[in-house]
What we know:
Number of helices: 4
Order of helices and strands: HEHHEEEHEE
GO molecular function, one term: metallopeptidase activity
Helix content: 10-25%
CATH class: Alpha Beta
Keywords: Cell wall biogenesis/degradation, Dipeptidase, Hydrolase, Metal-binding, Metalloprotease, Protease, Zinc
Number of domains: 1
Organism: Brachionus plicatilis (Marine rotifer)
Largest sheet: 4 strands, antiparallel
Strand content: 15-25%
CATH architecture: 2-Layer Sandwich
Oligomer: single chain
Protein name: D-alanyl-D-alanine dipeptidase
CATH topology: Muramoyl-pentapeptide Carboxypeptidase, domain 2
Strand order of the largest sheet: 1-2-6-5
Distance between the termini: 21 Å
Amino acid sequence: MNQKVSGYDANRVIMTQKCAIALNEVWKELDSKGFNIVIYDAFRPTRAVQNFVRWAEDKNANQTNKASYFPYVDHDKVFDEGYIANRSGHSRGSTIDLSIIELGKSLQNVVRKNRKLSDGREIFFLDDNTLDMGSSFDLFDKASNTLSNLVPDTAHQNRLFLKDLMEKNGFVNYELEWWHFTLKDEPFPDTYFDFQIN
Length: 198
């Protein structure tokens, strides 16, 4: 969107206690294997979701980041493609977007690299020093589908590694996005919260 999203005033992760306890079990297993967790997004206020909706519906919306995040999807089609919803599971507090990083490494400023997919298309891979999952977090493309065959086998294996660990600890993956998981028995399945993160 190339703008600050409504509802976020601090770089803080919020989630339900039940989600945090389950995620801690994932972290313990990752730690024993030489990895750590990187969380991109967790609780998302409904006002932030509404901000996304307004952007997607605005024919004159800023599309400065189209090449990096939605190169082959028109911004007004992100609903039809399943990348943005009018109501987000993130607003229930038990959905998280995450990846894995090797112990001893830290996040870096994103380095944009050209990457060719197996169907011949090119995308930008936004390397932040996390484990290579074949496509970047928040890339709206079929290459981001968890079981996509458009990415190299090593990236596919990395996705399965993350997915298996998360599922073992009670999470369900959203098949269109390798990074997106919801606690299976979330405590607030019908409640969408809206408060400022500060």
